[in-house]
Predict the structure.
Amino acid sequence: MARSLDSSHVGSAEKGEWPKPLKAEACELSFYYGSRLVLKRVSVPIAQGNITALIGPSGCGKSTFLRCFNRMHDLYPGTRYEGAILLYPEGRNILDRQVDPIEVRMRLAMVFQKPNPFPKSVYENVAYGLRVRGVRDRRVLDEKVEQALRSAALWEEVKDRLSALGTSLSGGQQQRLCIARALATDPELLLLDEPTSALDPIATGNIEELLQDLKRRVTILIVTHNMQQAARISDWTAFMYLGELVEFGPTKRLFTTPTNKQTEDYITGRFG
Amino acid sequence: MKGRTVLVPEQGTAGSSKPLLVEGEGRRRVRRIRELVIEGGLLVAALVSVATTTMILAVLVVESLGFFDTVSLYDFLTDTLWTPLFDDPHYGILPLLAGTIVTSMVGLLVAIPIGTVSAMYLSEFASPRVREIIKPVLELLGAVPTVVYGYFALLVVTPALQWIWPDLPGFNMLGPGIVIGIMILPLVISLSEDAMRAVPMMLREGSYAMGATHLETAWRVVVPAATSGIVAAYVLGISRAVGETMVVAIAAGQNPNLTWNPMEPAATITAYIVQVALGDLPHGSIGYRSIFAAGLVLAMMTFTFNILGHVMRKRFREVY
Ligand SMILES: Nc1ncnc2c1ncn2[C@@H]1O[C@H](COP(=O)(O)OP(=O)(O)OP(=O)(O)O)[C@@H](O)[C@H]1O
Ligand SMILES: [Mg+2]
């Protein structure tokens, strides 16, 4: 079944279940590692100013999907995209060969599953994106760094050791540092790939709370293994299975009355 | 519950049902003895190299002690002349030390920038095919006999330099220094490249995700992340440069000369040692003993750099 780009026909989304306005939209996105097809015509809308969660069993292609948005796959030879990801407001297909991946990455930011601070000071970690964008003015840097660290709820803990190595922080702090690094450049869309899977419940709680505060400023697309987490924090949920989108809808509805049997089995833990 | 009954045999059946794969007492003893013999053999082999090193050090120390009976340690470390074979002998190590330091420094000034940039290219930019071609060539560079490098310094590099500075003497420290740099380049490149490749992809992805270019990622993330490994490569390079003998013996001139100017001729510790060792000094004479004192200084320097380098290499391995 081909899913049309027109929202009224998309899979399981019913009337009134299509978000608006959109920050981005994957349209019939297929992806290959070599000759291996791992995303099959996936269409998911990303609502502006909302949190969209991507759930599904391990290996179903969640990370692969997320990494299409900032063209991360371009780093590896033999990968291929098909279909489109439109980034609004202009609605341009960012997978187009004509589009410079760096230009796309300048507008998006990503937080990875495992905290990956650079072996630099806390300050330089957060300032990295700004420096890459050519910001030299110390005052601007100072201000942006502080702002980002505050947004990531890390400022109070690190304000006295901005020159300490980012890698010397605790796991939860490192992940918040990575979030601060991502926020410092005011991204339009924040991509998070299981950002709390390496953290304890308290650090996880901190970050979930943080994401709630952030969504007013930045659109969030988050991959999570943890269904409770998706239910707690997201506005929209997409359920993927074996490289396909099974169901998309408002989180509350999807978790209470899933229309698809597979979705129901998965969220009730009856999967596999 | 099910698992438990399988793992713990019931009391009654334990004795009667003997597992098939358990070996007999005799076989077990034979095997144990064989293991012991093999282990012992390996230990002896390892001890031979340890013993050799220890004995070399012991000889150096013992012969040097004879030297320091005649010459005070203070004179050795502060006298600015090294003329053990003259009628009016002086035994100040400083001129030789200066020669060693200057030639090594020149070598490092060549090897560090070129080595770092080449390693960065090989690790971050070169396609696998290019890397496959360059790496064996580098190893070949390391396989050239040092005598050849010595004559290369004397007959090619120095004349080339004289083209730029006509009053450069035929023996000088600059030419051999540059050649030492070329000699240690393969080592510096391959160790630095190892360090850069050991940087996890995760860090590079983090940088690219922020919109960084390939070059920015290599320079601002990969190189800093690999710093301790890269510095270890430099340190091991220094150790090699300090111990280098043929090049300086052939092309730097062999007269001890306390100077920091690489355009002048001078002798290094190593050059002095070959020079004297090749002559026919009577065994036990002070001149003969002086090469052990000089050798001890040299050994202490290279040991220090080697240990330092290996400690740093180990540390960078542990970071990830
Ligand atoms: N570099 C790669 N080359 C080939 N196949 C890959 C590669 N990376 C992932 N895959 C395959 O693509 C499929 C999707 O992987 P992906 O990492 O996107 O899954 P995921 O949903 O994020 O799983 P998890 O929840 O375990 O992180 C898997 O079957 C995986 O084996
Ligand atoms: Mg994943």
User: Anything to note?
Assistant: The radius of gyration of chain B is 28 Å. Residues 83 and 271 of chain B are 14 Å apart (CA to CA).
